Amino acid sequence: MREYTKPPLTYQQQVELLKSRGLLIPDEERTIRHLSNISYYRLSAYMLPCKEIKDECYTDHFIEGKTWDDVYNLYLFDRKLRLLVFDAIERLEISIRTQIIYQLSHKYGSHWQDNPDIFNVIHKKDKDGRDIEINVHEELKKHIAEQLHSNKAEVFIQHYRETYDTPPIPPSWMSVEIMYFNHLSRICSGLKLRSDLVGIASFYGMPPRQFCSWLHTINYVRNLCAHHARLWNRDFNIVPERLDFSKTHVWISNPNTVKRKKTYYFICMLNYLLQTACPNSSFKEKLYGLIEEYDGSVPLQHMGFPDNWQEEKMWKK
């Protein structure tokens, strides 16, 4: 271990540092303008494909001929990919929210979220490996109460409060609308009866366990996108379970060979679920358009794309 002693650099010093390491910068003013709006540290991850490798590790020196645009274009690609993914997640979130409300309401009535008997307590480990318990019913109850107290923007919540006093909590089609995506994941993971979860998961052509795992990963990636974090060249901390095959939807032919911690597998997940949630989605076409826009300048293998990914039935135009 050693003490961190690197001083902050001015934008001009950052440019000089990049030039000293071999990066070509034809327009310094433009590069400084980029660095003044996107931090050097954020951009440093996008510099990696442009750097020389020694002993299987990236060095500080850039490959001969690499330019600032090689770095900046990769950043732009990732930003547009994030927006595309976030848009797809929004469509899925609305669909999953709808199915949870519809199916559980028809089984248990309008206020099923108030019924503790339909939920299990979830047992899991925290990031430090300690056993924890999550009482799904209590978590939902607390969130709804907080929203009722603080959410002044939703007209339907105010209308319920001003019109009804029993039950004190609005029906599920109101209450679930003010929940976050992680609550939807909690609901599915916490349902006591397997048949309740099977009904929701089968709507999307999935087994229950894999469906819950995918929801957990979608929530994780949703948060990455919301905080403008990198999707390109990221190893996911929350890895989705493998879906081996599907009898109802188009899926990748060899899921055993795809790295589930990489972005490509997640993009395949989105494409799979959108077949139900939004059958006429332009997600696939927009992905092709984005890749073609930066053709040759984005190393797709860093996201887990196999060389023959376009030959997969789910990705064929």
Would you mind describing this structure in some detail?
By secondary structure, this protein is mainly α. The protein folds into 2 domains: 11-66, no CATH class; 76-315, no CATH class. It is built from 12 helices and 4 strands, in the order αααββαββαααααααα. It has helices spanning 11-20, 28-35, 40-47, 68-108, 136-150, 155-163, 172-175, 181-190, 194-203, 208-226, 263-277, 283-293, and strands at 51-54, 57-62, 121-125, 131-135. A two-stranded antiparallel sheet has the order 1-2. The chain has a two-stranded antiparallel sheet with strand order 3-4. The radius of gyration is 23 Å and the shape is globular.
Please tally the helical runs, counting DSSP H or I stretches of 4 or more residues: 12
Measured by DSSP, the beta-strand proportion falls in 5-15%
How is the biggest beta sheet arranged?
2 strands, antiparallel
By DSSP, the count of extended strands is 4
Shape: globular
Q: For the CA atoms, what is the radius of gyration?
A: 23 Å
Indicate the structural class. Answer: mainly alpha
The stretches of 5 or more residues where confidence is low (pLDDT under 50) are none
Q: Give helix % range.
A: 40-55%
What is the residue-averaged pLDDT?
A: 93
Please give the order of strands in the largest beta sheet. 1-2
- The ordered string of helix (H) and strand (E) elements is HHHEEHEEHHHHHHHH
Measured between the Cα atoms of the first and last residue, the distance is 52 Å
- As for the number of domains, it is 2
Attribute tags:
6% strand, two-stranded antiparallel ribbon, 317 residues, single chain, 2 domains, mainly alpha, two-stranded antiparallel sheet
